[in-house]
């Protein structure tokens, strides 16, 4: 992706925005980029917890805007991977404390200060919180789960992003279950792409290790290399953002002997 | 066992529902308003084509980036001349 400031958004809550932001940021940092990941979910701060950095939060985004600290005092360096920094949200204020003007100033300052990319974790919803988070972005990643409500909300969000003149909009299908797609009980990648009409940048399978990683404050993109797991998927997304060609995990293709037989007999 | 194999896969239903929902969302029309519009149109059609059948369809279709309103009026008899 050409975009330097990428907002991660979805409309619907609970689809994996924060997990995605944390993991693609860490994986991008692993490719050598200097990354700042910004939590804009004011009042409902969680990115620090997902990244296991909650004990190191001193200042936050609102402290920067209100002049209580300098931008680099609020940035937390992640010790596990060089070149990854977190800018936490405030837990005590609410979303009205954040303005578009401040957001743009912070993102510009980060990029001018030497960051290769800024990943902005948006709050759920389509109101001011989302609008402020996306105001400073030149690109967007829309996270969707393969279910009707999530795809519907993603369609709405894509319309709003386009109206804000964000040109580069990519899709991550998160929490897909290959077994359910194969037996026809879950929307597949092609179904979702048909409906939403934007380009894919990643497919992340449902993976219990995501929750286990969050429980322990680790990031699956840094710790798990299982062949068909979410860790690899997040790393592949980072490589694609970075500009590498990486083939997609073949989630929808038949896997193993029995699905081969089923296909032979006309199954799909 | 056979019922299991015959069961229509829920994905198709999900996809069709989603397409319908999104056509209303994108056009900014509520499904209820669409139903009222359909009934009003039907009433007008009956006035002019009293012998016409009632298999009258009104729908929204996505055509490229536009949402198009489509009314399907099959087998119209000659209009009432009075």
What's the number of helices of chain A?
A: 13
Considering the protein shown, what is the CATH homologous superfamily of chain A? P-loop containing nucleotide triphosphate hydrolases
Helix run count of chain B: 3
Domains of chain A, number: 1
Order of helices and strands of chain B: HHHEE
Low-confidence runs of chain B: none
- Corresponding CATH architecture of chain A: 3-Layer(aba) Sandwich
Descriptive terms for the model:
heterodimer, A: 268 residues, alpha/beta, Rossmann fold, eight-stranded mixed beta sheet, 13 helices, 42% helix, 16% strand, disordered C terminus, B: 82 residues, alpha+beta, two-stranded antiparallel ribbon, 3 helices, 50% helix, 17% strand, globular
Describe the structure.
Chain A has 13 helices and eight strands. Helix content of chain A is 42%, strand content 16%. In chain A, helix 1 packs across helix 12 and helix 5 packs parallel to helix 6. Chain A is of the alpha/beta class and 268 residues long. Chain A has a single domain, classed as Rossmann fold (3-Layer(aba) Sandwich), CATH 3.40.50.300. The model of chain B has no long low-confidence stretch (mean pLDDT 75). By secondary structure, chain B is α+β, with helices and mostly antiparallel strands. Chain B has a domain of 27 residues. Helices cover 50% and strands 17% of the residues of chain B. The interface between A and B is medium-sized, with 16 and 13 residues.
Annotate the secondary structure layout:
The complex is a heterodimer of chains A (268) and B (82).
Chain A: E1 5-9, H1 17-30, E2 35-39, H2 47-50, H3 61-65, H4 71-74, E3 76-77, E4 84-87, H5 100-112, E5 117-121, H6 128-135, E6 139-144, H7 148-163, E7 168-176, H8 178-182, H9 189-196, E8 199-205, H10 208-216, H11 220-223, H12 230-242, H13 256-264
Parallel strand pairs in A: 1-5, 1-6, 2-4, 2-5, 6-7, 7-8
Antiparallel strand pairs in A: 3-4
Chain B: H1 2-6, H2 10-27, H3 31-48, E1 57-63, E2 66-72
Antiparallel strand pairs in B: 1-2
């Amino acid at each position: 992706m050409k975009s330097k400031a990428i907002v991660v958004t979805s409309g619907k809550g609970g689809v994996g925005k924060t997990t995605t932001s944390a993991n693609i940021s860490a994986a991008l940092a692993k490719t050598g980029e200097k990354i700042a990941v910004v939590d804009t979910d004011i009042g409902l701060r969680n990115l620090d917890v997902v990244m296991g950095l909650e004990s190191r939060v001193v200042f936050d985004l609102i402290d920067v805007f209100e002049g209580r600290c300098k931008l680099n005092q609020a940035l937390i360096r992640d010790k596990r991977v060089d070149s990854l920094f977190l800018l936490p949200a405030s837990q005590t204020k609410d979303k009205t404390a954040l303005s578009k003007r401040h957001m743009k100033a912070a993102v510009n300052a980060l990029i001018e200060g030497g960051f290769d990319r800024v990943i902005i974790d948006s709050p759920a919803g389509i109101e001011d919180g989302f609008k402020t988070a996306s105001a400073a972005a030149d690109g967007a990643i829309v996270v969707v789960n393969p279910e009707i409500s999530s795809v519907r909300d993603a369609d709405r969000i894509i319309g709003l992003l386009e109206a804000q003149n964000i040109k580069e909009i990519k899709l991550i299908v998160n929490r897909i279950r290959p077994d359910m797609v194969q037996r026809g009980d879950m929307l597949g990648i092609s179904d979702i792409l048909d409906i939403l009409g934007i380009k894919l940048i990643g497919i992340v399978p449902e993976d219990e290790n995501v929750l286990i990683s969050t429980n322990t404050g680790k990031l699956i993109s840094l710790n798990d290399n299982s062949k068909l797991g979410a860790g690899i998927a997040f790393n592949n997304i980072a490589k694609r953002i970075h500009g590498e060609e990486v083939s997609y995990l073949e989630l929808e293709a038949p896997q193993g002997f029995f699905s081969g037989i089923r296909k032979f007999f006309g199954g799909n | 066992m056979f019922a299991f194999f015959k069961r229509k896969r829920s994905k198709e239903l999900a996809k069709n529902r989603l397409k319908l929902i999104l056509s209303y969302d994108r056009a900014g029309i509520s499904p209820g308003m669409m139903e009222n519009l359909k009934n009003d149109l039907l009433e007008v059609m009956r006035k002019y084509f009293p012998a016409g059948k009632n298999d009258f369809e009104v729908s929204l279709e996505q055509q490229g980036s536009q949402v198009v309103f489509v009314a399907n009026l099959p087998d119209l008899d000659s209009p009432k001349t009075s």
